[in-house]
Amino acid sequence: MAEEEIDEDLGASEGQKSSKIVSLLLFINILVSGAALFKIMGLPSEPVIVNTISAGDAEDEGDPELPGPVHAFDAFLVNLNEAGGGRFLRVTVELEVKNEDALAELQANERKVKDELLRYLSNLRVEETLGETNRLRIRDGIISRLNILLDDEDLVKGVYFPDFVVQ
After folding, report:
1. CA-closest candidate to residue 69, choices 112, 107, 109
2. What per-residue confidence (pLDDT) applies to 23?
């Protein structure tokens, strides 16, 4: 009977020892993981220099790094160039131009610009409108066509599509 009590006391202390060992190993694992994460995601060893440009530094022609004025059009709804003719594209186009003078020129020629956009978009096929690569091609095509139309190779800097739905 005395031996059974001694065995129970030994079993209890071994359980406490293994619990302490598991806790210690868990704590060490957390410390090592935290150190590794800090090393990977830590602060850069050298300071990061950020270029700042004040409003007075930008020239009238527009800095290619800075965003220019944006002209937003109402949504266009065009039939796509498909044999069945049942597919269409609804797209909202925003044009970024190089400066305020370019914005005034774009607004003065808004009818021509809308007409060019409609002709270009309605000539697209469904497969030419799907995916990021094709949308980038559409942007490049619009920029190129409008700069030719307005006789200025860098008047339109960017094209944005807040809404782009193919059905």
Report:
1. 107
2. 83
Radius of gyration of the chain (CA): 32
**The pLDDT of residue 51:** 46
| CATH class of the 70-166 domain in this structure | alpha beta
Q: How many residues does the chain have?
A: 167
**pLDDT of 50 strictly over 60:** no
Are the C-beta atoms of 96 and 62 separated by less than 8 Å?
A: no
Between 27-36, 77-86, 128-137, 141-150, the lowest mean confidence (pLDDT) is in 27-36
For tokens 């739905």, what's the residue? 165
Q: How confident is the model at residue 12 (pLDDT cuts 50, 70, 90)?
A: low
Phi, psi of 126 (to 5 degrees): -55, -45
